[in-house]
Amino acid sequence: MDLLQLRYFQAVARYEHISRAAEELRVAQPSLSRTIARLEADLGSPLFDRQGRRIRLNQYGVIFLRHVDRALSELDDGRRAVSEARDTGLGRVGVACETLLTITPILGGFRTAHPRADVRLFQSNVAEMDRQLRAREVDFCVASQPLTGTHLDSVELAREEVLLAVPYGHRLDGRKSVTIPEIADDPFVTTRVGHWQRALLDRLFAAEGLTPLVSCEGDEPGASQGLISAGLGIGFIPGVSRRLGTQESVPVAWVQVDAPDCHRILSLVWNRGTYLSEAALKFREFLTSKPFMAHHLPEPRHGDADR
Fold it and tell me: Which domains does the chain have, with CATH numbers?
């Protein structure tokens, strides 16, 4: 049994498909099949149930995969720790979030405080975040939707009201609040399925037995306010946009939504027990050291303890 066999087994177990795993690993399919067969021979037990061209991880494969994932994760962490020990900097921190606008002010402050940290940023929906955490592609996710699993830890960063934004001159311009049935026939600017704005929209309408009329959907939640201002529809926008004074650049009218749980919860999520570089540890400390929204407010430039 060698490391290559374990890597190959992990890929085949993830896909339960030899040709897809071979494509990812960039090896010939017959070679991959022979490697898996040798591993099974070494273990003295089949790891997959085979039915023609289809394979399924069996009970022995499930048991073995749990240990392989843990072992390879430890090796990957060890390789990363050695690499970062050679560096003169603080190492790397990878962060995924649903919209770059949420994390931009925080990263600005963090880079000012720790310029030697290597920051890698990814824009991901909730399904991609879950995959990235499992694959150790990122250290943290700043998520607006629940990420659950026994391997995850999280801390709530902020809980904020979500408002209805409407174009100036809209029939709701000037209203203090509105119910979901009152906006059932209005076209909505929102995001694709998988993003928090769409999840909130679908949930609030479903609670009233309604289906929203979507006029525009995309992958960047931060673009919604501009599209609403342009008259493409109405939409749900987190209250932070109003507090940060975006009216001058993207003018819209704000209306409170008379519906339970019309809010967004931002959480910082990471893998429990995994290796975190010094940069990652400092990022978590920086993010949780004061109320989340305070990171979005301008503050004086301060000294750098790492310089």
Answer: 3-84 (1.10.10.10), 90-157+265-296 (3.40.190.10), 159-264 (3.40.190.10)
